[in-house]
Write the structure tokens for this entry.
Amino acid sequence: MKNHSLCTMLLLVVAIPSFADAQSKKAYANIEEALRSTSILTGKSGPRSLNWIDGGKQYSYIATNDSTKHEEIRSFDPGTGKDELVFDAQGLTFPDTNRQFEYQSFQWARDSKHILFQTNFRKIYRRSGISDYYVYSLDNKELKVAAKSARTAELSPDGSMVGYERGGNMFVYDFASKKETQLTNDATGEIFNGHYDWVYEEEFGQAQAWNWSPDDKHIAYWQFDESPVPEIQISNYEGLHNEWEKIPIPQVGDSNPRVRIGVLDVMTGKNIRLDPGENGDFYIPRVYWTSQPNILAMIVLNRAQNDLKLYFFNVTDGSRRLLMEEKNNTWVAIFNFYTNVNDMMFLPDKIREFFWVSDRSGYYQIYRYDYNGRLLNRVTQGNWDVIKVLRIDPDKKIIYYTSAEASPLEENIYSINFDGTKEKRLSKASGFHAFDLSPNCNYYIDTYSNVGQPRQVELWSTDGKMVKKLEDNASVGEFVQSHEYSPRVLFSFTTSDSVKLDCSMIKPIDFDSTKKYPVIMAIYGGPESHGVYNSFDASGWDQWLAQNGYIIVNVNNRGNANYGSAFMKVVYDNLGYWESRDFVETARYLTSLPYVDSTKMAIMGTSYGGYSTVFTMLTHPGIFKVGIANSPVTDWRLYDDIYTERYMGLLSQNDSGYIRSSCMTYADSLKGKLLVVHSMMDDNVHPINTMQLLTALENAGKDVDLRIFPPGAHGAVYSSVTYLLLLKTYDEYLNLYLRGNCGKSDLDQ
């Protein structure tokens, strides 16, 4: 018998007007109106395209001029309150043309006197594309061509040069001499420099595969040889003879690209190759310039990603030394896509020390080392996870970081001395926060919300004073006061094996505890991810479902981040098992509530959530009446190797685990209605996953529903029209098969 005596239900006090009087509030007329409300409920985000400049004394941002209605770049000084114009594109033309200058994004040089603009962007993968770049001087107001058709470009730290990758080779352009220098010339179709292949970009989280040295003298870059990598083929089936796009992507057990690091002397053109001396298959996911001149740090991971080594290289002669090695029984993390953590290793300026975020204690904590690889001290202490190191102040010897210390459902900012003393929480309000800390560590932008308060954006000083309220989004509260809205409710329960799970619930509009309602579990579930936060619900889709009488539930299942490694890493080498078990435990808990209709429960998700949906439907048949799976992995042997082997181990060492985690293994167990959605142009979860699932289900005599988007990408849709069509399809499917209503479809309108 499952024990629910430890169950707790928490509804935070709301700061916006009461939601009780729904009778007098405006309802959504249709799903389109509901979806449009997402931007209203989200509210304003504060200064757009914010960049700290002048060492952190000011920040720049994009604003729309009230008079001209044109966008301009402005700067704000938190110390003086001065706000002034920095750049206005009006009247400025592309060099040697009469065409009005326009741009997609921009970056500042470290001197804060030059701006590099990105224009004419043409997407390649999730994070990358081809662009034209122009540099603007604030001193002489001159716009110059920096690079054409480059994948990435970046100004040198002093602003005198721009480095860029084009066509698989590295270049540098000197503005004073007006000279372009090609630094590498060995690119072929399969060998390229300065940009990542598909799997490195996707699974190690970066787009630019090169870095300037702080002294402007060197560029460190990755070189890839894709010749050993198998290709996938995808098509949108357009035209009389459809074309196939071929992309080299290694699946589990496949050969990886051969990767090495080179360092270029931008003045002499000398190219030094850095050899870590490793045998077998390994990854180089990160390199960092150190505070010591001519010394580059390199992280090397074995293929199983459970053995990390940190090397220091002298870039003048290629010599190396090993500083640190960390092994783990599961995996060693070097970043986390889901919690927006780009690095776990930090090498601040001015001091010869580095900091490493490790879960060796069972929780992610900060460790301090010197340049001899000697552990100086553990900085943070506690049974909670450090989430992200924001900045390190080498002068005051203070680290600024975020953690789950207050709650796994929140992210707050803290400061602590290098020696682990004087830990201090800086953020005041409860909720889920995102921070942008100035380079001088004097100020930060705090963007946060909680279940009862919409997004707030504030400028704070690190000495504890709020400098300026940038957005209070009072209009969101006004909208909620006049429209039907159901707030997110946080609750938790204890599973049958005594594990506490945090959950969220959105109840139907006009909720009546004496009635019974259908439940939709909208989940993701993947390792290192996180689904439930103490944050404001701004989803018009959620509110549409609530208006139509559904309860919407999510859960932080085992495998999720911010609960310690025992909770997160229990899923290792056995994906699907613990996640699906926790979804079922949540469903069974919900059936104990008097207002839940246990005969009408659905589960739905996209990507890993699609996998979770299918796997749960097949391994726990009969729990969920309806499942909706968008872009699902169905067999981990069909997914890319870096992601999968990180969490499942090597195929040669865990063949039985891969079979256990495959949806096809359980195809004959399907009960209930299942809708599968996929794009034929999905380069992330390849369509082969859905096709092999369909074959397995057909061979077992099981019927499913299918929605194919021939164009599109991961997540299936490719336009606002197809996004609306997808959600109408979901809505109709739930209405027909979960609630059992057979009335006129919204798709017919």
